[in-house]
Amino acid sequence: MFTQFGATSESLSKASTMMFRIGTDAHLYDDPDDVSIVPLLDSKFDSEKCEALKRLLALIAQGFDVSSYFPQVVKNVASQSLEVKKLVYLYLLHYAEKRPNEALLSINYFQKDLGDLNPLVRAWALRTMAGIRLHVIAPIILVAVGKCARDPSVYVRKCAANALPKLHDLRLEEHSASIEEIVGILLNDNSPGVVGAAAAAFASICPNNLSLIGRHYKRLCETLPDVEEWGQIVLVGILLRYAVAKHGLVEGSIMISSRSLVKYNSEREDLEPCLARKENPDDISSEICSEIADVVSRSYLEGPEKYLSQLSCMDKNPSSMDISHFTSSKSNDDVKILLQCTSPLLWSHNSAVVLAAAGVHWIMAPKEDIKKIVKPLLFLLRSSNASKYVVLCNIQVFAKAMPSLFVPHFEDFFVSSLDSYQVKALKLEILSSIATCSSISAIFLEFQDYIRDQDRRFAADTVAAIGLCSQRLPDVAKTCLEGLLALALSESSNGDFASADEEAVLVQAINSIKTIIKQDPPSHEKVIVYLVRSLDSIWAPAARAMIIWMVGEYNNVGGVIPKILPTLFKYLAGRFTLEAVETKLQILNACTKVLLRAKGEDLSILRKIVGYLFELAKCDFSYDVRDRARILKNLLSHRIGSPYLEEVKDQPEIEDLAHVLTESIFGGQTKPPSCEPLSYRFYLPGSLSQIVLHAAPGYEPLPEPHSLIYDESCNISTDVQGIKTSGVGVAHNEPNENDDSEAVSGSSDEENTSDYSSQESMSGSSESGGSGSASDVNDNAGPLIHLSDADLTHRNRVEVSEENDASGSNGVDELMSKRDLESWLDENPGLNQNSLDLGHVQRSLARISIKDFGGLVKPKSYTLLDPANGNGLSVDYTFSSEVSSISPLLVCLHVSFRNCSKEPMSDILLFEEESNRSPDSSDQSVSESSPVSRSEVPTLVPMEEIANLEPGHTLKRILQVRFQHHLLHLKLVLGCNGRKHLVKLRPDIGYFVKPLPMDIEEFSNKESHLPGMFEYIRRCTFTDHISELNDKYESSLVKDNFLLICEKMALKMLSNANLFLVSVDMPVACQP
Amino acid sequence: MLHCIFLLSDSGEVMLEKQLTGHQVDRSICVWFWDQIISQGDSLKLVPVIASPTHYLFQVVREGITFLACTQVEMPPLMAIEFLSRVADVLTDYLGSLNEDLIKDNFVIVYELLDEMIDNGFPLTTEPNILREMIAPPNIVSKVLSVVTGNVSNMSNTLPGATSSCVPWRKTDLKHASNEVYVDLVEEMDAIINRDGALVKCEIYGEVQVNSQLSGLPDLTLSFANPSILNDMRFHPCVRLRPWEANQILSFVPPDGEFKLMSYRVKKLKSTPIYVKPQLSSDSGTCRISVLVGIRNDPGKSIDSITVQFRLPPCVLSADLSANHGAVNILADKTCSWSIGRIPKDKAPSMSGTMALETGLQRLNVFPSFQVSFRIMGVALSGLQIDKLDLKNLPSRPYKGFRALTRAGEFEVRS
């Protein structure tokens, strides 16, 4: 009966589906091309056109290319029927870029529609027209957008705001100023809906032009609650950036970690009594995890590259933030209003808005006010499964940096069996970081349930979390240990046929036991004995290996373990051949350690066993085991007394050596677990980068606090930023070069603006002649410019070519060969549109060429050693563009040593710091420099020692250095008078670039290949400059203008590794 | 900025693609995505943000339909996820429900909606009420018309007035013959009961759902008798936040039709209306299971649609389960569901049976957890009470209706 009913219901549902399908567009989707479409498109009737267009849409939906119908479709743009229009627009937007010429045909109709009385028609026309990505019509669109930005209809203005990013996306630099102007107009709109869209446009067009926000800041804050939800998300982020850039960080917020606070307090205690009161040491340490908070705040402020470069020197000089960067949320109105206006957003029903608002409070609010964000954040967990994961990822960071926030809410992180594995793992991690003495019992009760969960991976994670908890709260270590032991026992009991997942739990349990024991080995002796006894039942090789490691490590702890050793090793020796490789290796290690410590009659027994084990290992299948056995045997020869090594025995000093070696390798007590290195990165809350854990293209950290200053230069600086961001944007269109550009951007900001001039000495076109000349730039500026009358206009040439190589050392080789350059040139398809434009522009411009610029510019000098630190020895260095004779990977440095003290100095030598190799190389793995080149080229070519340096004298040396990474410091040791000073060489990215000799023709030939890649044409008029030029003099003002341009270019260039050639076109107006 | 949206069927077929910016995203990304899904199993389906070699993908899965959005640049991931959920909501609203056929049949509407909802990768109009005015939902009349006359447009010719008003969620000139407003409290109870039978967590997630059929531009004020019990809340954009901050009063101009006025949470409840007591004991390769269900605290109204669901542990080979009330079903994916319905007066429902374990396994080492669902009409278990609803600015006296409902949310009993 049931089956029958089932059948009927099925057929019923089928019938009903059929019914439902009648009257829909189903047939169009199923057989879109069963009639010929072209005649339908040409039909007189709108309904037929509609059908044809729907068929085309169906084909698009199914992934067919129907661009061949373009001409017929475009005609229909003139249709009066809105439905036809809409469908045409949909089609047009999909294919406009493919068929630019035909798309141009529609422009007239759009312009007509823009004048339509119906705002809907105007809006659609604008949206579609802006969506047609053609450079030719960009000016028309710009005019249209400008008009629509003042449209009476809110909807049209909103569409105008949305059209701006499309226009900006075409990367026509000459329009960017007017685009930004329209953004400003729209931001000032009195309809909140428009403001939201304008904020989105701002964020994608000129996110760094914060002065634009400054004008409307108060009003934007006030309208924030009324802005539609999507706009709120973006606007909140912009306002946060502005507040940080304008007013700096808030005193007492998470961003100012307790560490710098302490420092600040000790310096200025008397001035800020209220702060000192707040800064009650134990109070804060319980409240926030200062170390992580420090890293969090640091990484919010700094880009990934800068962060990486600082990582190496982080612990030595903690970034001492200037106190002037702090502001107070109480006294500063702007910050106050921001916090006030974002707090209602925490009640929004859009989870993205809540998270964005929470992010503002997290960064800007004083610590005691952050509590506010906790409940809304936790409530988000109930919204949807997809957002749950994202929210948890963010909560995880908050909880790590400030566990106290979430401590009372631990119940919210209890795992439900419906959660996905990722969510479960996140919840576990949060739980283990917020557990406190009061909540731990409840959490452990939960954990006990999780261990029996069906998902064994999750169960294993739970066991690991127990280990973490006991590390954080040593009080519960004993309870944990008991629980884990019981677990290990029960797991091992049914371990005979356990799958890999099953084993994971056991292995993790032993691992957690290990970490607990590590903290206090003597008191846990019994546990080790217990584990050893259960070795028989524990089968997982990884678990066995860990137990054996523990035995070896703690073989002389307590009174029982040494007694059981002989028996244990007899057992192990008997089973040796049956063990897995992993376990075998640990057995060999353990017996070495044991043998080192053994005394009395145990020694002789152990010696025999170990000898036997080595013999067994010698015949093992695995060469790892064989090798290990061989090494250990040699090292232990003095303890074993092997007959095979008699010749060694004859030489007691070698034996001693072996003994010392063994002692230092195996005898050394393992250090107590030091705080784990904070290698993970944090990104701004709510960002995509935080979820994927790498900086996504376009990710920007918070702006430098107090970087926004109002003065006349404001406009210029924002211009620079405008270029920079657009440059980065372009880089992202080229996925294969993404990494390079990211690696460079950010680091360049600081260093290279200051000494751009010195970098030009490297330019490929000019001779890389002797630098180091100390002549003043301004005095010699005249001859720099070579004027040559080409035609009516002065045709001057400035060629600043820069082969910018970002990918580090291996890229240099690439550049050295011309063939590579050739192929590289061919690889980059040019945007013809752009190059045409350029050609057009160039005709009316003059080109100025700066020759021998480098030789005349005083290179920027860095201090290597301060006389204060170096007992009167002052060491400075400058980079030079000389090419090293040894290897192109080496960078030449001029180092000048000056004795500022009264005493003569002797034996001055710079050499590499040996002990520092290991951390360096770990950094290496992060960076992308190739290991091959590292092995070939030395880091430092040995310097000629300075035997004696008289007081007041200065000596110069040329140093050839190979930087491991173009952002990381190179640590060197400076020996002087027998004392050693640690010094750091800062790399300068410009000097990784090597000149490539080529003659003028070749150069211009190459250059002609270049146009069309990424070109930015910026125009500016320097009236001062022109008038001075006619006098054939260069005043300092003019020079500044030049440098300004060059600096801009440098910024842009270095922020974007794709850019290899910069030519500066200077407009030179003829004086009548 | 989103670059592209794909709609995928549950077999991985791309049903629709909508390119949002000039940077066209190739369909091959979907192939890559589906390969990942296949190779990594369903667990990936639950990861909302995936970094593919070329793009970042956001996914929201509803009723087997995968809404996949791609971007290449940094953007708030929750924004993408919220937007995709909103698209899914709007489509469900338009098409009645969501499935492959419905989307294919109405692909033109889906395209039109997507085009209206997002512009250049940034959400444009997502308010369902306005969308309904711009693009008419398919209904029987239009279908019949289209059959009879050949074609009928579902596009509105004019811009909805609401886009320019200060209450963008409401049509400007609404007329209803009968003025009615219904306020429903819909609550879901989340609870975790651990192995010892102790209530670890019990809380209520509730929503105030309003169905308003009011003419003109009414101004409503809703107040609760005991707002202090509310722990967290979120509001529809129409709610004015100042009155809530000051007096905990909900003051709003409602959108037309059904909407979620607010959602709230009440934490730390002390008891659940029903109890579920599972017992498992295993020995020598078989496992005995028995589950008892009964009423613990009578809420005063009848509890119905009670079901108990659990997943048999992977080490169980076969199970033989029977119940003294209701039906027990074991599905192919080892999910066992016991639908009880109402609890009879005379006996306590119980289910018992044996399960055979894998050969070699003596005892059960992993234990299932039981998901319980139930429904109680007429009661809001959180105890939240609506005090009064005032309506202003209305031409005629409206009809006001209040209802309450509690059902189980994530109600989980561990064994």
UniProtKB/TrEMBL annotation, chain A:
SUPFAM superfamilies: ARM repeat (SSF48371). Residues 727-813, 913-937 are annotated as: Disordered. InterPro entries: AP3_beta, AP3B_C, AP_beta, ARM-like, ARM-type_fold, Clathrin/coatomer_adapt-like_N. It comes from the Eukaryota. GO terms for biological process: protein transport. It is found in: Endomembrane system. GO terms for cellular component: AP-3 adaptor complex; endomembrane system. Keywords: Membrane, Protein transport, Transport. Belongs to the adaptor complexes large subunit family. This is AP-3 complex subunit beta. It comes from Abeliophyllum distichum.
Automatic annotation (TrEMBL), chain B:
It comes from the Eukaryota. PROSITE patterns: CLAT_ADAPTOR_M_1, MHD. InterPro entries: Adaptor_comp_med_subunit, AP2_Mu_C_sf, Clathrin_mu, Clathrin_mu_CS, Longin-like_dom_sf, MHD. Keywords: Membrane, Protein transport, Transport. Residues 178-414 form the MHD domain. Its main location: membrane. GO terms for biological process: intracellular protein transport. It is found in: Endomembrane system. One of its GO terms (cellular component) is endomembrane system. Belongs to the adaptor complexes medium subunit family. This is AP-3 complex subunit mu. It comes from Abeliophyllum distichum.
